Amino acid sequence: MFFTYLNGCQKMKLIQAEDKGFWLFTQGSTIHLVDGNLPFGSAAELGLTGHHALFLGEWLAQPLYLVVPQPNDARAYFPLRDQLSLPQEQFNLLARGVELNHFYQTHQFCGKCGGKTEQKSDEWAVQCQVCGFRTYPVICPCVIVAVRRGSQILLANHMRHKGGMYTTLAGFVEVGETFEEAVHREIWEETQIEVKNLRYVGNQPWAFPNSQMVGFLADYAAGEIHVQPEEIYDAQWFDCEQPLPELPPHGTIARKLIEATLVLCQQDKNKS
Protein backbone atom coordinates (compact mmCIF):
# COMPACT_ATOMS: atom_id res chain seq x y z
CA MET A 1 0.00 0.00 0.00
CA PHE A 2 1.14 3.55 -0.66
CA PHE A 3 0.12 4.89 2.77
CA THR A 4 1.82 4.39 6.12
CA TYR A 5 0.35 4.76 9.59
CA LEU A 6 1.89 7.68 11.44
CA ASN A 7 0.25 8.45 14.78
CA GLY A 8 -3.18 7.86 13.27
CA CYS A 9 -2.65 10.17 10.28
CA GLN A 10 -1.23 9.57 6.83
CA LYS A 11 0.52 11.89 4.43
CA MET A 12 -0.41 12.46 0.80
CA LYS A 13 1.42 9.93 -1.35
CA LEU A 14 1.91 9.27 -5.02
CA ILE A 15 -0.60 6.66 -6.20
CA GLN A 16 0.91 3.46 -7.57
CA ALA A 17 -0.70 1.38 -10.32
CA GLU A 18 -1.38 -1.57 -7.98
CA ASP A 19 -3.09 0.48 -5.25
CA LYS A 20 -6.68 -0.69 -4.96
CA GLY A 21 -9.72 0.37 -2.98
CA PHE A 22 -12.50 2.94 -2.92
CA TRP A 23 -11.72 6.44 -4.16
CA LEU A 24 -13.26 9.67 -2.89
CA PHE A 25 -13.37 12.64 -5.26
CA THR A 26 -14.95 15.75 -3.78
CA GLN A 27 -15.79 19.28 -4.85
CA GLY A 28 -17.12 21.58 -2.16
CA SER A 29 -19.67 19.52 -0.24
CA THR A 30 -20.33 17.13 -3.13
CA ILE A 31 -18.82 13.74 -3.91
CA HIS A 32 -18.37 11.71 -7.07
CA LEU A 33 -20.54 8.60 -7.34
CA VAL A 34 -20.95 5.93 -9.99
CA ASP A 35 -24.44 4.41 -9.95
CA GLY A 36 -24.85 5.71 -6.41
CA ASN A 37 -21.58 4.22 -5.12
CA LEU A 38 -18.02 5.33 -4.57
CA PRO A 39 -15.78 4.19 -7.44
CA PHE A 40 -13.84 1.01 -6.65
CA GLY A 41 -10.87 -0.61 -8.33
CA SER A 42 -7.15 -0.39 -8.86
CA ALA A 43 -5.42 2.86 -9.68
CA ALA A 44 -4.42 1.43 -13.05
CA GLU A 45 -8.03 0.53 -13.90
CA LEU A 46 -9.30 3.99 -12.95
CA GLY A 47 -6.48 5.96 -14.54
CA LEU A 48 -5.21 7.35 -11.23
CA THR A 49 -1.59 6.20 -11.38
CA GLY A 50 0.73 9.12 -10.70
CA HIS A 51 -1.88 11.28 -8.97
CA HIS A 52 -1.82 11.99 -5.24
CA ALA A 53 -4.18 10.65 -2.59
CA LEU A 54 -4.60 10.34 1.15
CA PHE A 55 -5.74 7.26 3.08
CA LEU A 56 -8.87 8.12 5.10
CA GLY A 57 -9.88 4.79 6.63
CA GLU A 58 -11.72 1.61 5.67
CA TRP A 59 -14.87 1.49 3.54
CA LEU A 60 -16.59 -1.90 3.31
CA ALA A 61 -13.38 -3.58 4.53
CA GLN A 62 -11.37 -1.89 1.77
CA PRO A 63 -9.11 1.19 1.88
CA LEU A 64 -10.74 4.54 1.14
CA TYR A 65 -8.54 7.20 -0.44
CA LEU A 66 -9.15 10.92 -0.82
CA VAL A 67 -7.91 11.90 -4.28
CA VAL A 68 -6.36 15.33 -4.77
CA PRO A 69 -8.67 17.38 -7.06
CA GLN A 70 -7.74 17.27 -10.71
CA PRO A 71 -8.12 20.08 -13.27
CA ASN A 72 -10.88 19.84 -15.87
CA ASP A 73 -12.68 17.16 -13.86
CA ALA A 74 -15.85 16.15 -15.74
CA ARG A 75 -17.03 13.53 -13.21
CA ALA A 76 -20.60 13.59 -11.93
CA TYR A 77 -20.87 14.97 -8.39
CA PHE A 78 -23.74 14.60 -5.92
CA PRO A 79 -24.56 16.32 -2.59
CA LEU A 80 -23.03 14.80 0.52
CA ARG A 81 -26.43 15.34 2.19
CA ASP A 82 -27.83 12.57 0.01
CA GLN A 83 -25.70 10.10 1.99
CA LEU A 84 -27.32 10.81 5.37
CA SER A 85 -29.06 7.42 5.23
CA LEU A 86 -25.67 5.68 5.53
CA PRO A 87 -24.54 4.32 8.90
CA GLN A 88 -23.10 7.13 11.00
CA GLU A 89 -19.51 5.87 10.82
CA GLN A 90 -19.61 5.78 7.03
CA PHE A 91 -21.19 9.23 6.70
CA ASN A 92 -18.61 10.65 9.11
CA LEU A 93 -15.80 9.12 7.07
CA LEU A 94 -17.09 10.86 3.96
CA ALA A 95 -17.38 14.06 5.99
CA ARG A 96 -13.74 13.68 7.02
CA GLY A 97 -12.71 13.50 3.38
CA VAL A 98 -14.80 16.51 2.40
CA GLU A 99 -13.49 18.58 5.30
CA LEU A 100 -9.85 17.63 4.73
CA ASN A 101 -10.14 18.42 1.03
CA HIS A 102 -11.61 21.84 1.89
CA PHE A 103 -8.80 22.47 4.37
CA TYR A 104 -5.99 21.53 2.02
CA GLN A 105 -7.44 23.49 -0.89
CA THR A 106 -7.88 26.64 1.24
CA HIS A 107 -4.54 26.41 3.10
CA GLN A 108 -2.01 25.97 0.31
CA PHE A 109 -0.28 29.15 1.46
CA CYS A 110 0.70 30.37 4.91
CA GLY A 111 -1.69 32.77 6.60
CA LYS A 112 1.24 34.38 8.42
CA CYS A 113 3.87 35.04 5.72
CA GLY A 114 2.31 33.80 2.46
CA GLY A 115 4.83 31.01 1.93
CA LYS A 116 3.91 27.64 0.42
CA THR A 117 2.66 25.03 2.87
CA GLU A 118 3.08 21.27 2.96
CA GLN A 119 1.25 18.58 4.87
CA LYS A 120 3.16 17.24 7.85
CA SER A 121 3.97 13.56 7.94
CA ASP A 122 2.74 13.00 11.49
CA GLU A 123 -0.68 14.75 11.47
CA TRP A 124 -3.34 16.38 9.27
CA ALA A 125 -1.78 19.84 9.77
CA VAL A 126 0.07 21.86 7.14
CA GLN A 127 3.29 23.76 7.85
CA CYS A 128 4.81 26.73 6.05
CA GLN A 129 8.04 25.87 4.22
CA VAL A 130 9.32 29.41 4.84
CA CYS A 131 8.51 30.45 8.42
CA GLY A 132 7.44 27.09 9.90
CA PHE A 133 3.98 28.29 10.98
CA ARG A 134 1.72 25.27 11.43
CA THR A 135 -2.03 25.27 10.77
CA TYR A 136 -4.46 22.54 11.79
CA PRO A 137 -7.73 21.60 10.06
CA VAL A 138 -10.31 24.23 10.90
CA ILE A 139 -13.41 22.97 12.71
CA CYS A 140 -16.17 25.52 13.38
CA PRO A 141 -18.37 24.53 16.36
CA CYS A 142 -22.10 25.21 16.12
CA VAL A 143 -24.77 24.71 18.74
CA ILE A 144 -28.11 23.25 17.72
CA VAL A 145 -31.00 23.02 20.16
CA ALA A 146 -34.57 21.73 20.37
CA VAL A 147 -36.83 23.66 22.76
CA ARG A 148 -39.86 22.15 24.52
CA ARG A 149 -42.79 23.87 26.24
CA GLY A 150 -44.94 21.24 27.87
CA SER A 151 -46.30 19.11 25.02
CA GLN A 152 -45.12 21.56 22.35
CA ILE A 153 -41.89 21.87 20.39
CA LEU A 154 -40.45 25.07 18.94
CA LEU A 155 -39.66 24.74 15.23
CA ALA A 156 -38.41 27.41 12.85
CA ASN A 157 -38.55 27.91 9.11
CA HIS A 158 -35.23 29.53 8.22
CA MET A 159 -34.93 31.99 5.36
CA ARG A 160 -32.83 29.50 3.37
CA HIS A 161 -35.77 27.04 3.60
CA LYS A 162 -38.49 29.67 3.21
CA GLY A 163 -41.87 28.02 2.89
CA GLY A 164 -40.39 24.54 3.33
CA MET A 165 -38.64 22.62 6.07
CA TYR A 166 -39.01 23.54 9.75
CA THR A 167 -36.16 22.62 12.06
CA THR A 168 -34.37 23.43 15.30
CA LEU A 169 -32.45 26.61 16.08
CA ALA A 170 -28.70 26.67 15.55
CA GLY A 171 -25.73 28.99 15.29
CA PHE A 172 -21.97 29.29 15.48
CA VAL A 173 -20.17 29.55 18.80
CA GLU A 174 -18.42 32.89 19.16
CA VAL A 175 -14.90 33.50 20.45
CA GLY A 176 -14.71 33.37 24.25
CA GLU A 177 -18.16 31.79 24.56
CA THR A 178 -19.21 28.49 26.09
CA PHE A 179 -21.57 26.15 24.26
CA GLU A 180 -24.25 26.88 26.85
CA GLU A 181 -23.86 30.63 26.44
CA ALA A 182 -24.11 30.20 22.69
CA VAL A 183 -27.39 28.28 23.09
CA HIS A 184 -28.97 31.04 25.17
CA ARG A 185 -27.71 33.78 22.84
CA GLU A 186 -28.76 32.10 19.58
CA ILE A 187 -32.28 31.29 20.81
CA TRP A 188 -32.74 34.84 22.10
CA GLU A 189 -31.39 36.43 18.93
CA GLU A 190 -33.55 34.33 16.62
CA THR A 191 -36.81 34.15 18.62
CA GLN A 192 -36.44 36.27 21.82
CA ILE A 193 -37.27 33.15 23.84
CA GLU A 194 -35.47 32.34 27.10
CA VAL A 195 -34.67 28.73 27.95
CA LYS A 196 -33.53 26.65 30.93
CA ASN A 197 -32.49 23.12 31.83
CA LEU A 198 -29.98 22.61 29.00
CA ARG A 199 -28.95 18.98 28.38
CA TYR A 200 -26.19 17.89 26.05
CA VAL A 201 -27.34 15.15 23.64
CA GLY A 202 -24.57 14.55 21.12
CA ASN A 203 -22.70 16.00 18.17
CA GLN A 204 -22.25 15.46 14.44
CA PRO A 205 -19.46 16.35 11.99
CA TRP A 206 -21.10 18.57 9.40
CA ALA A 207 -18.93 19.04 6.32
CA PHE A 208 -20.69 22.10 4.91
CA PRO A 209 -17.86 22.83 4.73
CA ASN A 210 -16.26 22.33 8.17
CA SER A 211 -18.71 22.53 11.07
CA GLN A 212 -19.23 20.40 14.16
CA MET A 213 -22.85 20.43 15.33
CA VAL A 214 -23.17 20.22 19.13
CA GLY A 215 -26.71 19.28 20.12
CA PHE A 216 -28.77 20.23 23.18
CA LEU A 217 -32.29 19.90 24.51
CA ALA A 218 -33.76 22.84 26.42
CA ASP A 219 -36.98 23.78 28.20
CA TYR A 220 -38.92 26.99 27.67
CA ALA A 221 -38.47 29.58 30.42
CA ALA A 222 -40.02 32.86 29.26
CA GLY A 223 -40.82 35.15 26.35
CA GLU A 224 -42.98 35.40 23.24
CA ILE A 225 -41.78 34.53 19.75
CA HIS A 226 -40.40 37.47 17.79
CA VAL A 227 -38.28 36.19 14.92
CA GLN A 228 -35.05 37.67 13.66
CA PRO A 229 -36.16 38.51 10.10
CA GLU A 230 -32.69 38.22 8.57
CA GLU A 231 -32.44 34.59 9.71
CA ILE A 232 -35.93 33.24 10.42
CA TYR A 233 -38.99 33.37 8.15
CA ASP A 234 -41.34 31.78 10.70
CA ALA A 235 -41.21 30.09 14.11
CA GLN A 236 -44.06 28.39 15.94
CA TRP A 237 -44.94 26.07 18.80
CA PHE A 238 -46.20 22.75 17.44
CA ASP A 239 -48.21 20.31 19.56
CA CYS A 240 -46.82 16.78 19.49
CA GLU A 241 -50.21 15.28 18.60
CA GLN A 242 -50.94 17.67 15.75
CA PRO A 243 -49.59 17.38 12.18
CA LEU A 244 -46.02 18.59 11.96
CA PRO A 245 -44.46 20.52 9.07
CA GLU A 246 -41.72 19.14 6.85
CA LEU A 247 -38.81 18.12 9.10
CA PRO A 248 -35.07 17.62 8.53
CA PRO A 249 -34.10 14.24 7.05
CA HIS A 250 -33.26 11.23 9.17
CA GLY A 251 -29.55 11.02 9.89
CA THR A 252 -29.23 14.67 10.88
CA ILE A 253 -28.68 15.66 14.49
CA ALA A 254 -31.55 18.11 14.04
CA ARG A 255 -33.95 15.22 13.42
CA LYS A 256 -32.50 13.33 16.38
CA LEU A 257 -33.14 16.32 18.66
CA ILE A 258 -36.66 16.78 17.33
CA GLU A 259 -37.57 13.13 17.85
CA ALA A 260 -36.13 13.13 21.39
CA THR A 261 -38.14 16.24 22.19
CA LEU A 262 -41.35 14.80 20.76
CA VAL A 263 -40.98 11.82 23.11
CA LEU A 264 -40.76 14.22 26.05
CA CYS A 265 -43.74 16.18 24.70
CA GLN A 266 -45.82 13.02 24.55
CA GLN A 267 -44.81 12.07 28.08
CA ASP A 268 -45.96 15.49 29.26
CA LYS A 269 -49.24 15.07 27.37
CA ASN A 270 -49.84 11.68 28.99
CA LYS A 271 -49.44 13.21 32.45
CA SER A 272 -52.23 15.71 31.87
UniProtKB/TrEMBL annotation:
Sorted UniProt keywords: Hydrolase, Magnesium, Manganese, Metal-binding, NAD, Zinc
GO cellular component: cytosol
Co-factor remark: Binds 1 zinc ion per subunit. Divalent metal cations. Mg(2+) or Mn(2+).
Stretches of the chain forming a coiled coil according to its record: none
Short motif Nudix box, span: 171-192
Binding site for Zn(2+): 110, 113, 128, 131
Binding-site list for a divalent metal cation 3: 186, 190, 231
PANTHER family assigned: NAD-CAPPED RNA HYDROLASE NUDT12, NUDIX HYDROLASE, NUDC SUBFAMILY
Name the UniProt record assigns to this protein: NAD-capped RNA hydrolase NudC
Protein species of origin: Aggregatibacter segnis ATCC 33393
